[in-house]
Amino acid sequence: QVQLVESGGGLVQPGGSLRLSCAASGSILGINAMGWYRQAPGKERELVAVISSGGGTNYADFAKGRFTISRDNAKNTVYLQMNSLKPEDTAVYYCLGSVITIPTRGIYDYWGQGTQVTVSS
């Protein structure tokens, strides 16, 4: 089995920071492209940031200059550093990972369970 587990969410005041983590585990050889998405109440799930296997990154407009996505291949983990948080950043944040599996060595996409981020005074 393959699992993606997010952590690091919580309650933070406007202007504060959080660092989210997403760790892949199970019968895997490694991770490929990874991404962070978010979904606010009553809204569609939207892309926050993606990072390629080689480390190239792309961000949604609302994330540019505030959020940073990174990865640690040795730990099969992707991170999202969020600074200057705003109330409109409140959402459930999900990790999407392309995972190289054992024994087929195929590449499959998996979603994490999500972690709640609440930005409020």
Q: Count of helices?
A: 0
Structural class: mainly beta
Radius of gyration: 14 Å
Please, what is the oligomeric state? single chain
Query: Percentage of helical residues?
Result: under 10%
Q: Mean pLDDT score, rounded?
A: 95
Specify the biggest β-sheet.
7 strands, mixed
Q: How many angstroms separate the termini?
A: 40 Å
Stretches where pLDDT falls below 50 for ≥5 residues?
none
Tell me, what's the shape?
elongated
The percentage of residues in β strands lies in: over 45%
Total count of strands: 11
Sequence of secondary-structure elements = EEEEEEEEEEE
Can you describe what's shown?
- This protein is mostly beta strands and 121 residues long.
- It has strands at 2-7, 10-12, 18-26, 28-39, 46-51, 57-59, 67-72, 77-82, 91-101, 107-111, 115-119.
- Strands 2, 4, 5, 6, 9, 10 and 11 form a 7-stranded mixed beta sheet that branches.
- A hairpin with a 4-residue loop joins strand 7 and strand 8 (77-82).
- The termini are far apart.
- The mean pLDDT is 95.
